[in-house]
Design brief:
- With 528 residues, the protein is α+β, with helices and mostly antiparallel strands.
- It is built from 17 helices and twelve strands.
- Strands 1, 2, 3, 4, 5, 9 and 10 form a seven-stranded antiparallel sheet that branches. The protein has a three-stranded antiparallel sheet with strand order 6-8-7, with helices on one face. Strands 11-12 form a two-stranded antiparallel ribbon.
- Strand 11 and strand 12 form a beta hairpin.
- The two termini are 41 Å apart.
Length: 528
């Protein structure tokens, strides 16, 4: 335990600071595919009863028209966040006619690439921009990759904690710069330790054989329709997931906010030959992609965690970060647990709080290139063989067994869990920590091991097992309908979002080409 960590813990345990721990904010974004009764990808349009995917604050779509995304408000208590997420699920389930929410991260049987529907957002300029961006993703990575789903966990420290921490550290930067630097330091530590999350919560050790579309691979055959790796935790986060030659050289530095935003700004502005060859429009003048640069927009950079700030209308993420600093972090590497109706539960959320707080409070030296590389290798090793007996990772240039390092980390999280329990009352955070220690002691208790054990025990294919859980979750949601008042609230929200989209489409000035040009220009001039 570093001296800095000890001092910060003591500060948080102080009577004046302890209640602030109950004011940290949490939000969840959960993606899931809509599927038909046989598990095939739904080809229907985004259900009108769910509202407008463009303007609804809680129910939207990600890549495909069939890839729903549920977004909770930011709440101080993770129990409230999960309750919000459950209400969204229950409403959506009540509106899906003969369709289901797919239970795992990896898709089941997908149609031909050409038949995977890209999400549509209407005829407004911003709606068309979102569609063209997704067309660009299809060109660059293929539509199949875009049907992988995950959970994003958003977390921010209580605003009242920052002045106390800054005073303790004797830091003389502006409050905004101190907060941003602290979040970037958190992200560096996250990079060091995120392999642990993949071991504990990875839930995609197997996938439908059709996902690979005949590409070469090193997976093993479990049955005619299922491929797997025996010790994998998360094939979703492995090199089978998002791969981009263009992004290979894009390694945003997490040593300060300015270098991070500049690397992304540069990538949005730098042409990539293969994309330039395709061009932005076809012979008929129809848009194919927003630009031919390394990434079309900031969100195309695939990372396991991002610094974020809520944007104003029309503002881009980098602009928000540069002008007002980091407000929260978005953890993006979490698989959907197919056994849980929401894909995540309260024990996991509480553990994530302790994990992220540890990353925020522990000393976080700058990432030298060797440490950066070792962190990436530890992560990739864990996703492909994290449960392998005796698996060794690299720590400070020395080999260390995953199990040993994991237990040591959980021990270091213990005082944080204790503080959170003191703040909230009860022992829920320490219980969540003990549950994770059991998985370290016995890899068979990890979700990834449970998935493989169930596939072997039942003899089901990945596709059949996932569909069965999808239907069980749907029955669970439908057996607990929302109250009339809650249902009416969602119906009203859907109606309002449709009206907002219609208003955008009727009142918007300017042509689309000019809109895209202005959108591109909005980022190219900053930071130069």
């Amino acid at each position: 335990m570093s001296e800095l960590f000890s001092r910060r813990l003591a500060l948080l345990g102080d009577a004046a600071a302890l209640p602030l721990l109950t004011q940290n904010l949490h939000g969840i974004e959960r993606e899931c595919l809509r599927v038909n009764a046989d598990g095939s990808l739904a080809q229907t349009e985004h259900p009108r009863a769910l509202g407008s995917a463009l303007t609804h604050p809680q129910i939207t779509t990600d890549y495909s028209e069939a890839l729903l995304e549920f977004i909770t408000p930011a709440e101080a208590n993770p129990a409230d966040t999960l309750a919000d997420l459950e209400r969204i699920h229950r409403f959506a389930s009540s509106q899906l006619d003969g369709e289901y929410l797919w239970s795992p991260s990896m898709p089941g049987l997908l149609p031909d690439e050409a038949d995977i529907p890209i999400a549509r957002y209407g005829s407004s300029n911003i709606g068309r921009l979102k569609y063209v961006y997704r067309q660009g993703l299809a060109l660059r990575y293929g539509k199949t990759m875009q049907c992988i789903a995950g959970i994003h966990y958003n977390f921010s420290l209580a605003e009242g904690l920052w002045p106390l921490l800054q005073q303790l550290d004797g830091d003389t930067q502006s409050a905004r710069d101190y907060q941003s630097a602290s979040y970037i330091a958190l992200i560096r530590n996250f990079r060091r330790y995120s392999w642990l999350l993949m071991y504990l919560f990875g839930a995609s050790p197997a996938l439908d054989a059709s996902f690979l579309r005949g590409r070469p691979h090193q997976l093993q055959q479990l049955d005619a329709d299922t491929l797997f790796l025996p010790y994998a935790t998360s094939l979703r986060m492995s090199d089978l997931g998002y791969q981009s030659n263009a992004q290979a050289g894009l390694t945003p530095c997490y040593n300060d906010l300015a270098s991070y935003t500049e690397s992304l700004r540069s990538a949005v502005a730098t042409p990539y030959p293969a994309y330039a060859e395709i061009g932005t429009k076809n012979a008929a003048g129809e848009w194919l992609q927003l630009n031919s640069n390394i990434i079309q927009i900031e969100n195309e950079y695939y990372s396991s965690i991002r610094p974020k700030r809520v944007t104003y209308s029309g503002e881009r993420p980098i602009q928000a970060l540069m002008s007002r600093g980091v407000q929260y972090v978005e953890v993006r590497c979490l698989d959907i647990n197919p056994y849980l109706p929401l894909g995540i539960d309260l024990d996991q959320a509480r553990f994530l709080d302790a994990f992220i707080l540890f990353c925020a409070l522990e000393d976080s030296p700058l990432l030298a290139s060797g440490v950066c590389r070792a962190s990436t290798e530890n992560f990739l090793k864990t996703v492909k063989e994290g449960r392998r007996p005796g698996l060794q990772l690299q720590r400070d240039g020395q080999p260390v067994e995953l199990q040993t390092w994991a237990s040591e980390l959980l021990e270091r999280f213990a005082p944080i869990a204790e503080l959170l329990d003191r703040a909230y009352g009860g022992d829920a955070y320490q219980t969540a920590l003990h549950l994770q220690q059991r998985k370290v002691d016995d890899p068979a208790q990890t979700p990834s091991a449970q998935v493989l054990a169930e596939l072997r025990e039942t003899g089901e294919s990945f596709r059949a097992m996932a569909l069965r859980h999808s239907k069980e979750h749907a029955a669970n949601f439908r057996a607990q309908p929302l109250t009339a008042e809650e249902q009416a609230g969602f119906v009203a929200m859907a109606r309002t979002s449709l009206a907002e989209q219609a208003e955008l489409e009727s009142a918007e000035p300017g042509d689309f080409d000019s809109f895209v040009a202005a959108y591109q220009a909005s980022i190219l001039g900053i930071g130069v």
